[in-house]
Amino acid sequence: MQKAKYTKEQIEFVQNLVKTGTEVTPATRQMCEHFQITFNDTVGRAFRKKMQAVTTSDEDLDNFTSTETKGYSNDKKKEVKGFTAISDDGFLLNIEDYCVHYGLDVSKIRSYKLITHSNLPFYNIVFNEDVSDPVVNEQEIKDMIEEELLKISYNPPIKALEGKVGVVKVSDFHLGSYVDNLIRTKNFSIDILASKLSAAAQEINDRNYKLVHVHILGDIIESFTGTNHRNTWKGLDKAMVGAEAIKLSVKIIHDYFLSKIVNLGEIKLVAGNHDRTSSDNKEDVQGDAANLIAWGLETLGYAIEFNPLVITHVVDGICHILTHGHHGISSRSTKQLCWDYGKQGMYNLICEGHLHSIIEKLSVAQRSKFQTIKDDAVDHRRFNCPSFFTGNFYSEALGFTSESGFVITEDNGRGVPNVFYYAV
Q1: Are the C-beta atoms of residues 409 and 418 closer than 8 Å to each other?
Q2: Please, where are the H alpha helices in 58-152?
Q3: 83 FRET partner, CA 20 to 30 A, in 12, 46, 183, 184?
Q4: Are the CB atoms for 225 and 233 separated by under 8 Å?
Q5: Exposure string over 105-122, b if 16+ CB within 10 A, otherwise e
Q6: Are the C-beta atoms of 169 and 350 separated by less than 8 Å?
Q7: What is the torsional sign of CA 327, 404, 421, 252?
Q8: pLDDT by residue (tens digit) across 110-138?
Q9: Is 74's pLDDT higher than 50?
């Protein structure tokens, strides 16, 4: 990717503002407004690096101008650094006149403050962030991913077997997370996750099911953006990071898990709180990263259904209600969830992931009373699926550790599920 080049005037524009006390990012925004270019995180990051590299020299003084301040400071001549709020005739400019004088759009100002403790006063302005189209859109990201996925072939292993239908429930892969050298928490990495998924596939095949459905309960990836800054996934460099995360997730799940399962049927996938394309959970509330992973698996030939919130799947007369566990609906009663999303007259099995995150949010007293099975009755059960993710420093500091695992359910022949827990 070719780096953008900035003119000497643009760099000096920002540099002069920084010298007056303005932060680099607001200064860069003002420069973009002045030169009518689009501000985004890539531009902001470039100028932050430039300003870090700049050291004041004698040549910098050439960027300053002098003016007489007739009405403000007793007609004394002073060097005006950057965007002084003193007009050419020596009077203090109000914010509207200040913006007109420097070619700034006053309608986009979020807040401003008149700074008067420097040699000459100036306005420190914060602009509203421009809403602009992403540098790359969703289709362009898909094109990046598809080019790699087309190199992968999928030949599903099929064996003529008689017997039961198995429903596999897996959750919280947190692909991309790295845990090492904690006291009680087991190490975790992409290689370790791949090994655990492969072991799970072998355990599934050992049960010799005539058909296997797989329920993936969210938090497939650790992070799409790899940063805490807002909207950075929209920039091309971050989109490349995100596209690589999606490609790797699809490849790991395909190579080490789904492609190894004999007589694979349908895949159901709901999004977790980590499966978003933004760092802020208020920007992407529908788990777009999980949606892209589902799309990638479908591209390879898998029969997959995605929903950001909840999926209902009826197998052998048992209604499986799937959600990650972080949405508001998980605070509803089990009976309410069965009424809203289940099937009347069937056994309703509510399955959620998010276990390690739930434990982290509980107090010590609450954790001691926590039960994996939240509710159990003659016609329904609600439980949390084990996590493949082993935990991190934060969870260990709270005194919580977990064993990687997954669940297989099957009909007992009377419309009630047998539930089998596996550790991997």
Answers
A1: yes
A2: 95-102, 138-149
A3: 46
A4: yes
A5: eeeebeebeeeeeeebbb
A6: no
A7: positive
A8: 778 777 665 667 777 776 654 444 445 67
A9: no
Count Cα neighbours of 129 within 13 Å in the Cβ-side half-sphere.
11
Judge whether 264 and 156 are in contact, CB under 8 Å.
Answer: yes
Condensed to tens digits (0 to 9), the pLDDT of residues 280-297 reads: 555 556 788 899 999 999
User: Rounded CA gap, 14 and 20, in Å?
Assistant: 10
Residue 326 host element (H or E): none
Other C-beta atoms lying within 10 Å of the C-beta of residue 190: 16
In angstroms, the CA 302 to CA 296 distance is 9
β-bridge mates for residue 78, sequence order: 67
Q: How far apart are CA 162 and CA 210, in angstroms?
A: 6
Q: How is the beta sheet containing 417-423 ordered, strand by strand?
A: 304-307, 264-270, 211-216, 165-170, 405-411, 417-423
Of residues 218, 220, 249, the one with CA closest to residue 351: 218
Q: How much is the pTM?
A: 0.63
Encoded tokens for 361: 């949010």
| Six-digit token string for 298 | 């479908």
Element spanning 352, H or E: strand 347-352
Name the strand (E) or helix (H) holding 314: strand 311-315
Q: Are 294 and 391 in contact (CB under 8 A)?
A: no
For the record, the structure tokens of 345 come out as 């007259």
Q: Which of 199, 213, 221 is nearest to 169 (CA)?
A: 213
The CATH class given to the 138-423 domain equals alpha beta
Compute the distance between CA of residue 389 and CA of residue 355 in angstroms, rounded to an integer: 10
Q: Distance (Å, rounded) from C-alpha 11 to C-alpha 1?
A: 21
The Cα–Cα gap between 168 and 200 comes to: 10
Could you tell me the two tokens for 55? 């050291």
For 8, residues 6+ apart whose C-beta sits below 8 A from its C-beta are: none
Taking phi over 0 as left and psi of -120 to 50 as alpha, with beta for the rest, 382 belongs to beta
| Cα atoms in the Cβ-side hemisphere of radius 13 Å centred on 162 | 0
Residue 379 has pLDDT above 70, yes or no: yes
What's 317's DSSP letter? T
Location of structure tokens 């005194």: 399
Tally of CB atoms within 10 A around 327: 20
DSSP at 258: G
